Fold each of these.
Amino acid sequence: MNTVAISRGSSGTGLFPRSSWSPGKKDASRMHEFGIAYDIYATARKAALERGAKDVKEVHVEFGEMAMVSPEQVSFLYEALVEDDSLMKGSHLSWSVVPPQTRCSCGYEGSERFVCPQCGRFPELIKGREVIVTHMEVEVDDE
Ligand SMILES: [Zn+2]
């Protein structure tokens, strides 16, 4: 068994110039959307590879209404990300927005987020914050 030591070297501290990185609130939210776009890209790529895809045409994503992200923004970032990936290049992100689903301790289940229509209490959000890759369209060699 070989043990390989990976060293980042000791000569520089300039890999991540901290002084130039000071996100404001707007930047922070953009980074959030970039993270989501990257997750979608990584998830779709893995699934495509597992199925032996030669080309990826379309990736469909469900955005929970409470995920607090802009699907347009995520789609834009996604399409920029796949530009550098020969497998994913040219794939298109399509999406749907799904309403939140809530449940109350009285037994109510539905989409009322703030006031339970049966008892007036605050219902619990059980679905609606997720961003999920639901399906995708890929091309495979038929053999
Ligand atoms: Zn209730």
Amino acid sequence: MKIRLIALLVITPLLLSSQLSTSHAAAKAGAKCSTVGVKSVVGTKTFTCVKSGKKLIWDKGVNKATLIPKTREEKAFELVRAAYLAKPAYKAPITYVVAEKSNQSFFQIIKTGTEASAKFFQNYYKPHSELPFIMADGVDIEWMISNMSKYGFEMDHWSRGAFKSGWGNAHTNSKGSILVYTGMPSTEKNIYAFGNLGFGVHEYFHVVTAGILGKESKFGEVIPRWAYEGSASFFGNAIAELLPEKGELDMWQKTRFKTFTKSMRYYNVKERVPVLHSLSSQQLYNTFIAPEIDAGTCPQAYCYTAGELLTEVLLADYGIDKYFSWWRASTNTPWRSAFEKTFGINFNQWLAEVGILYVMEEASKVYPEQPANPDYKKKIEFTKS
Ligand SMILES: [Zn+2]
């Protein structure tokens, strides 16, 4: 008995391991398997051994990656996708005022992004009166100034200076909002479909933001500037990526479209990451708690790129509705207290323990060519705000 027992103990693991490796090698839809209920993972697919008639075969498999988002980036995107698909059709009261010379394809792309944004955010905000959309692509600054003034808006100093190089903007005053776009005459060749779809989503989202907050908050008046620009960048990219799935692009747009949140981010981060990469985690934290990040002329690397990542991680961890309930709570209490009340954690603590780390890790992932600061992952010292 003793000898047999030893022999069994030795043989059993051998048998088990050979069975496992055999079934893994054979896991292919329709191929034979040996034990009902056994699962085998091949690549991103999980196959299950099922009984079919008298035979045991591997089923067609489930693509795990599409069911369970693995990263926070995927989780946040999945939330946006599910919300977008669940929204009913909606037509915002937008009046298009487009200069004759404007490039029609450029206009159509921005319009598609704008209307997708209106659909997505309809349960957070709907314009209650006419929303003028003015495009002066390729025309005189005077045309734009006079059309803006018809709706009670003046062109600010910055916009005048940058008129020729092009911009898009959303403005809100006590009477309503306006969307404005300008630029050099565009040729079809250099119109970047994905970026411009996101551009349309982004600027309309600023109208939504003013609607939710009850006033504009471009420079930290209600919410910090990184949340203002970072969320617009996040939703711009995420919603633009969804559009081809829904067939909402015409052929011209489709041929110029690539689904690439990642490469868009790569482009963003590549331009701006040297700033982020040059810092230690502590330095980035210190930058983010400085008052000029909330309210001042926050550089794009911080308020657009890092701000987009901070928005992404908040959405992934707490969901879209909770994110906006933080904004709503900020309308009658300072945003830091509203943050703590909404998410149950002090803002500085969250930034030190979650936010900055996420920005640092994502930045080094998308742009590994540049080595990160050796202290980019170091534990951050913080005092509660
Ligand atoms: Zn913006």
